[in-house]
């Protein structure tokens, strides 16, 4: 059974469904998903390719729209927000980590990390402090002026993590964050994510294929053909925590 | 500020691709500017002609002449200040390829009427005194290396024979547009020779040039002059110099219109090429735009980045094109001087160049901007890897 950490849920998902249309055909991707994620949780979402993991993650992170159901994050029903409200909500509440890092190639490490802060009212000096702190956290203080192409994959992913945490969001979503990395780099990234949960009280939702990555997580959920199951393969109980 | 930085860095990210696009736009703008200058030049010749000068010719056709006796009657028309006259000589120097305009004119009245032909007083005096003397424009003299005192022989076509002239003066044009490739000689020399060889053709002039006291009188004077000779054996047609020139220009106007169209076609072609490049570029960056949206940037930001990049590239090309226009026009003035003694690029053309470049950037940017602004985040992110 899915185990909570005793804290109240930060994400509450109820009867979530999503399908895509391909031509005249409708392809169901997520079917009636209901589950909670506790505050401060490190959750791994596993499952075969095409099972809808990314789709679910995108819905929770507010970058895709559900067909049915509600997603409450920190008490806010994000399914009822307009695109504009959603954009503001995302920048305040969610940090993103992607498989291919998604850094802007023409911006330096510093500028990439600074990017989310440009939408806040912070002054240039305040931004600099935040960025320096975030890059220090990921151990890249000596690479501020490097462009992504001048960094290794692992270093790029660390810049991406710095970018994800620089505005101090409560939730981090990571879609296969180690999928493009070698074993050592992947280990470092997972270590870092672990620290973010334990030292900085972040909630992390991570999609992964990698069993070693999943091991780091406190809870593993499986998606199979749009249906959510517990780590033992049984249909998940609708409410997290026993 | 940040967006501007991103736009500039994006614009020159693919060095070769951006360079090729910029050069392409530059060449198109250069061609556009030069073609428009060429067309402008054509009409400029017309505009440069004086509004206070009238030309009287035979009403039937330019090839028929008028009796010299008309001169005194024209002079008596109220509003007429000066009258000169001449013949299109049509002499050939060496062979037909060495074409330049040459006229027989009454020297004193002619140079009074055409102050834009600037001669030193000494040369002017020498020309007046020598019946076989002639004057030529500076550019023409430079072309053949003629010096004062040189003997110039023209083969007559309308007036057969070998005609010899002594170069007595080299004039400069008061303005850039003044014709500096013409030769003028004494009408008396032509007439006296004709009296001996072809008396029937003597005392005939090809055209009268009339100076009026005020430009407003031009229409009135033309009507009065033509009125005097109506129903005579040699009816006249008097028009402003401008209208007279337009008669020459009219037949080539079709060519000018074609050139104008070509100048626009050039812009349309580069527009299509630039649009294709921008679409390709934007397609490659969809995931980046989606990432920015993920971080909370709005469609306005994305639109600004995509559109800005298109404008930066097109305007860089435009500025380069404008910068190249000046050496190109200089090159034309020196290397093609016999066709284009002056090839001045006007300020209007420069503005048109820049407007055309801005339009190329706008049109090329529209579709990618729309794509970038409207792409769904989840869709955009899927395009990676
Ligand atoms: N924009 C889309 N249009 C059509 N089908 C899509 C779209 N996005 C995802 N899908 C389909 O939805 C299913 C789930 O995709 P995804 O969530 O990316 O799976 P996973 O991340 O588990 O590999 C797949 O079959 C995929 O082809
Ligand atoms: Mg996926």
From TrEMBL, chain B:
Topology of the protein relative to the lipid bilayer: Multi-pass membrane protein
The UniProt record lists the keyword Transmembrane helix: yes
Transmembrane segments: 20-43, 254-275, 296-323, 343-367
Main location (coarse class): membrane
Record bears the keyword Metal-binding: no
Keywords (A to Z) from UniProt: Cell membrane, Membrane, Transmembrane, Transmembrane helix
Annotated MacB-like periplasmic core domain residues: 18-226
Places the protein is found: Cell membrane
A Pfam family matched in the record: FtsX
Occurrences of domain ABC3 transporter permease C-terminal (ranges): 261-371
PANTHER family: ABC TRANSPORTER PERMEASE, ABC TRANSPORTER, MEMBRANE PROTEIN
Name by which UniProt lists this protein: FtsX-like permease family protein
Species of the source: Geomobilimonas luticola
């Amino acid at each position: 059974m899915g185990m909570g950490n005793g804290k109240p849920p930060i994400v509450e998902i109820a009867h979530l469904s999503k399908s895509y249309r391909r031509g005249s055909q409708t392809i169901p991707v997520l079917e009636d998903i209901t589950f909670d994620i506790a505050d401060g949780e490190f959750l791994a979402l596993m499952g075969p390719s095409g099972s809808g993991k990314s789709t679910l993650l995108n819905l929770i992170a507010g970058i895709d729209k559900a067909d049915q159901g509600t997603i409450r994050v920190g008490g806010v029903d994000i399914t009822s927000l307009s695109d504009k409200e959603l954009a503001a909500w995302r920048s305040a509440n969610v940090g993103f980590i992607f498989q291919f890092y998604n850094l802007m190639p023409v911006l330096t490490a510093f500028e990439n990390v600074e990017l989310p802060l440009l939408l806040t009212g912070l002054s240039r000096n305040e931004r600099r402090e935040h960025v320096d702190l975030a890059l220090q956290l990921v151990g890249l203080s000596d690479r501020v002026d490097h462009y992504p192409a001048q960094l290794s994959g692992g270093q790029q992913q660390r810049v991406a993590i710095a970018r994800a945490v620089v505005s101090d969001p409560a939730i981090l979503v990571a879609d296969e964050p180690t999928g493009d990395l070698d074993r050592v780099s992947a280990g470092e990234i997972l270590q870092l994510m672990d620290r973010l949960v334990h030292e900085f009280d972040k909630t992390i939702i991570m999609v992964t294929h990698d069993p070693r990555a999943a091991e780091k997580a406190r809870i593993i959920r499986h998606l199979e053909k749009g249906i959510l199951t517990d780590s033992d393969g049984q249909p998940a109980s609708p409410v997290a925590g026993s | 500020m940040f967006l501007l930085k991103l736009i500039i860095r994006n614009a020159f990210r693919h060095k070769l691709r951006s360079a090729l696009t910029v050069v392409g736009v530059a060449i198109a703008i250069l061609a556009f500017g030069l073609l428009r200058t060429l067309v402008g030049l054509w009409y400029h010749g017309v505009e440069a002609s004086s509004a206070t000068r009238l030309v009287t010719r035979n009403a039937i056709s330019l090839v028929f002449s008028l009796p010299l006796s008309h001169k005194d009657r024209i002079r008596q028309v109220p509003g007429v200040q000066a009258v000169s006259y001449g013949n299109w000589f049509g002499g050939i120097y060496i062979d037909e390829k060495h074409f330049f305009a040459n006229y027989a004119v009454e020297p004193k009245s002619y140079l009074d009427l055409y102050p834009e032909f600037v001669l030193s007083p000494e040369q002017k005096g020498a020309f007046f005194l020598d019946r076989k003397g002639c004057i030529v424009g500076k550019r023409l003299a430079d072309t053949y290396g003629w010096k004062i005192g040189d003997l110039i022989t023209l083969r007559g076509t309308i007036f057969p024979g070998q005609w010899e002239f002594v170069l007595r003066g080299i004039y400069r044009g008061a303005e850039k547009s003044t014709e500096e490739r013409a030769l003028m000689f004494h009408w008396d020399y032509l007439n006296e020779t004709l009296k001996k060889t072809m008396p029937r053709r003597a005392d005939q002039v090809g055209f009268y040039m009339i100076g009026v006291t005020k430009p407003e009188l031009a229409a009135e004077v033309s009507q009065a002059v033509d009125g005097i000779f109506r129903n005579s054996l040699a009816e006249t047609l008097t028009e402003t110099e401008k209208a007279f020139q337009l008669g020459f220009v009219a037949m080539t106007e079709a060519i000018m219109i074609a050139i104008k169209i070509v100048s626009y076609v050039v812009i349309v072609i580069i527009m299509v090429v630039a649009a294709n490049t921008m679409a390709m570029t934007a397609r490659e960056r969809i995931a980046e735009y989606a990432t920015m949206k993920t971080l909370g940037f709005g469609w306005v930001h994305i639109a600004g980045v995509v559109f800005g990049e298109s404008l930066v590239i097109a305007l860089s090309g435009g500025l380069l094109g404008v910068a190249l226009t000046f050496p190109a026009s200089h090159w034309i003035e020196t290397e093609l001087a016999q066709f284009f003694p002056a090839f001045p690029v006007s300020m209007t053309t420069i503005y048109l160049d820049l407007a055309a470049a801005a339009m190329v950037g706008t049109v090329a940017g529209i579709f990618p901007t729309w794509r970038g602004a409207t792409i769904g985040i989840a869709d955009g992110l899927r395009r990676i890897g």
